[in-house]
Structures are given as C-alpha cells and as structure tokens.
Amino acid sequence: WNMISSWWRKAAKPAVTSPPDQQRPDHDTMPIGTQAQVATDDGDATPKAKPLTNGAPVPQFSLEAPSNPAQIDEDSSDEEIEMPPPQFPSLNSAQRASNPTSSSANSLFVPRTGPSLMPPPPRPASTTANPRLGVPSTGLKVASLSSSLRVPTTGPLPNRGPPSSSPASSLAAPLTTSVPPPNPRKKVILSPGHSPLDWANLQKTNSNLSGVPSLQRVTPSMLKAKNGRKGRPTWSSYKGRVYNMTPYLSFHPGGEGELKRAAGKDGEKLFMDVHPWVNWDNMLESCLVGIMVSENDPRAGMGSQLDDMD
Ligand code: HEM
C-alpha cells in the first residue's frame, strides 16, 4: 500500500504544482500501468490524476497467501512471507496435551466443558452485538462472566501435571477437599512452664535429675523394673546408656504416653523412628543413671564414676 500511495503521489504531483497547460507527467520514470494523465478537460480548478487505460495491465495486490508457493516473489521471500497465524495453544503445549481430543478445527478455542481460565468463545452472532469482540450487547450478567473466569472448584486445574486418563480421575485434587498431610506431627500442647527452654533451664540448675546418688551398672532386669508403673521411676536405655525419664515426661513435646512406650526397656528404635535428629545425649545429661551391663555382671547395681565404667 505504501508503494501504491508513493506512486500515486508522484503521478499527481505535477497536477498540483504546475499550471494545467504545463502538466506533462514523466511517463518514462513511471512504472507501467501506473502512469497518470492530468484531467484538464473537465474545467476543475484542481485537476485530478487519472490512471491511463491504454491497455497496460494494472498490477493487482492481495494480502492473501498465493495458493501456489512458486508465486512467492524470490526477493520478498527473505523479508515478508505470508505465514498463517500462530497456533494457540502451541502444538506442544501442556494445555493442548491436556485436551488431546480437540481437533485442529477447534484448536483456537478452549472448550467450554474443559477447565480454563480463558473467557468462553464468542457467542453466536444472533446474541452478539459486536461479533469481533464476542461480548453480548444485552444480558451481560456479572455472575456468568465471573464464573467463566474463575478457577473451577471441581476437576483438574489447567496446565497442572500430565493429562489424566479420564477426566474424572484427575491428578489435581479438588479445591474443596482438604488432603491431610502424609505424616502428621504428633506434637502435644505442653503445659505452661514445660517448654524445651524450661527443660534446658531446669537441667542447668539441677545437675542431677537421675534419682540416684551415683552412676549405676544396670542389668536388663533392673531396667525392666523401672517401668514407671505404681509410682516407680521411668528408666529407658539409649545406645547402652540408662536415663531416668521421669523428670522429662512432662517436658516431652511428643507427650508422656509416647515417651512411656520406651519405659523399662531400650527405646533407641522407637526414638530413631520418630526423631533421629534429636540429640538425647545433651537433653538428658542430668538424667543419666548409668550404663547397661549383662544380667550376670558381678558389679551390677554398684555405683561408680563414668570413667571407671569405660
Ligand atoms: C531420650 C528420649 C527422648 C527425647 C529426649 C525426646 C525428645 C523429643 C523432642 C525434642 C521432640 C520435638 C522434636 C521436634 O520438634 O522436632 C520430640 C517429639 C516427639 N517425640 Fe520424643 N523424645 C524422646 C523419646 C521419644 C520416644 C521413645 C518416643 C516414642 C516412642 C517419642 C515420640 C515423640 C513424638 C511422637 C514426638 C512428636 C513428633 C513430632 O514432633 O513430629 N519420643 N521428642
């Protein structure tokens, strides 16, 4: 169009700048078919240029892509090649993959039944004032518009994960369903003054919370007797060390009941299953009773220093 208008301006220029009797368009410099002659015979003050109709073919321009690819001008192939509009969604997009049944004919539109954040496709012309916009002239209900834009509360979220085999069994959980976490924490609410910090302070002020005057050699039968029942202390062993758990019971974030499952026995496996990251050695330092020995150890029950036990 720019080419045509520049030719047109060039052809018409003498008519505007020169008196009518001197108007001689430069036919030699004009492209064939676009030569113009000045209309001087109609008596207009401002003559108008008219295309010559001397049999020369007038070139035709079209925005349509030629049906025959060979018709594409070689020079223009580098610069402007008529391409079809880009596909949306693109051919390898997850959105297209999530609806493999959609054909190329309707690929430009998101199906009404499918999950989408896109507005619905334009309505039929009979109900549409402006078919280019696809907005109904009357009866535009806020509810219907907003419902088309909001995320569906049932069904899969768009563009999330691979396509499911059936629409009903979507991988995406419905937004209305609350899915419990796979491994819920079993922490309890500790009573006031029994936080981990309170326990740390208690350990600082009381260096011996073990309930025994000195470190003991503990046999399995001795350990079993300290099971916390009937007012007895609660002992447990961890990696060969015996601790008095009684003062710690009410400070245990997992609750007394959990801690008592290891009462009177080795609690290492239970402990490691729940919180292997917890440093029990530090936390129960002041509760250390002694070390485990075999049942028939002659020094069983005797007090000693930890260095002696090594
Ligand atoms: C030496 C003995 C033990 C100590 C010092 C101890 C200490 C702790 C500590 C510090 C926590 C909080 C962990 C955190 O917030 O990440 C905790 C939580 C917990 N403990 Fe223990 N624990 C002991 C033994 C046990 C045993 C024997 C059991 C069970 C058989 C147990 C069951 C739990 C549970 C269920 C929780 C809550 C789980 C969670 O926080 O996710 N604990 N314990």
UniProtKB/TrEMBL annotation:
Matching SUPFAM superfamilies: Cytochrome b5-like heme/steroid binding domain (SSF55856)
Any one Pfam family match given in the protein's UniProt record, by short name: Cyt-b5
Q: Where is this region: Disordered?
A: 39-195
Alphabetically list the UniProt keywords.
Heme, Iron, Metal-binding, Signal
- Provide the Cytochrome b5 heme-binding domain boundaries: 215-293
Annotated GO CC locations:
cytoplasm
Report the superkingdom from the record. Eukaryota
Q: Does the keyword Cell inner membrane apply?
A: no
Q: Where is the composition biased (Low complexity)?
A: 166-178
Biased composition annotated in UniProt, kind: Polar residues: 89-107
Biased composition annotated in UniProt, kind: Acidic residues: 72-82
This entry's Gene Ontology molecular function terms read: cytochrome-b5 reductase activity, acting on NAD(P)H; heme binding; metal ion binding
As for family, the record states: Belongs to the cytochrome b5 family.
Q: What is the protein name given in its UniProt record?
A: Cytochrome b5 heme-binding domain-containing protein
